[in-house]
Amino acid sequence: MEGLNKLKLLISKKYISVVLFIVLDIVFLVFISFLGYKIYGVYSEIQTLKTEIDQLRSSSLLIKNNKDLLEDNIGEYNAVLDSIIPDTETYFQVISAFEQLEAKTGVNIESYSINLLETTEDKMSLSLTITGTKESIETLFENYHYFGGRLITNEKLDFTPEGLGSMTFPVNLFHAATDESTTGNSGSNVISSEDIEFIQQIADKL
Amino acid sequence: MKRRINLFSQRIDNQTAKRYLRTSQRVTYGVLLFGVIALMALFGTYIYLSNNLAELNTKKNTYERYILTNKSFNQDIKNFVQKFSLLKTYIKTDANGYRYYRDLIAILEPAGIADNIDTFSIDNNQDLDYSIKVLTYEEGIQVLDFFERPDVLDHFNSLTLESFNITQNEAEYTLTFNGIMKSRK
Question: Per-residue pLDDT averaged across A83-106, rounded?
Fold first, then answer.
């Protein structure tokens, strides 16, 4: 009977300490879970912040790398670029470009048709039927890129030198909306003085 | 009535209970120790990450201030870079055909056949097709000899004679070539 009482005492003492430790364990585990959750939150915030900082760094570098060369005349250069690659396209703009091309080169644009298969979201592809003197058509061939006040490209030149007075000349006109986001504007973009000279040469031809 | 006490079974129960209690105690100690270590490690990580977050926030604020100071230029430069890169992309699709035509004339000039070009076609990959008309068969052979010269072939990445035909009802021979001119972009 005495042994049994001893055992009961032992059990009650040990039992209390085990229960106490179990409670402590639970408290610790709850803390660990809470801290783990907090750490995950901070980690996620860091990742988001890193992405934001990358974009901001890119924009800052873009400013820093180009400010000296461009700051004074960037408005003028943008006006040139917006003029040759406008944000939107209208038929009036296209007709105006062709009229300007006729006036500057001396060729006659008899008619034009849209190549629907070649036309894309940012490119209008047209076939021009042109007539003129050999000299005027040569002037067109040499200066069509900017003489219309727009960027005009020709993907394939096909002609007969003897029949140069009349021919079909395929051209493309471009437009693109200004992208407000920073995507694609890498901070490593450094505009060189050759680029500026190129823009100025375009401006002289408009 | 004789009462029997099974001393062995009493002892076994006693020992089993003690053993369970001891094991439970060890397990709870172990879990507690693990908890303390894990908590310390996590707390350290939390402090490290919080400092890192604070540093990144400072960095972000610095960049934002710089961009805000140059707000107008920032918008302009983005527009410039976007349109300028588009310009460079679009201009690459241009064949610049007349320049290559003039190059071909300059190549043919030494042979005196610059005016004999009958047709000319070139695309933005410098894929070239042209034909030359001559009056006699001998002249045609001379043109072929001319195009076999290394200094002439040097202007082309490839060049082949597609056909050498006599024009019907006319005393004219037409040599049609195709190939790829060396890029000048």
Answer: 91
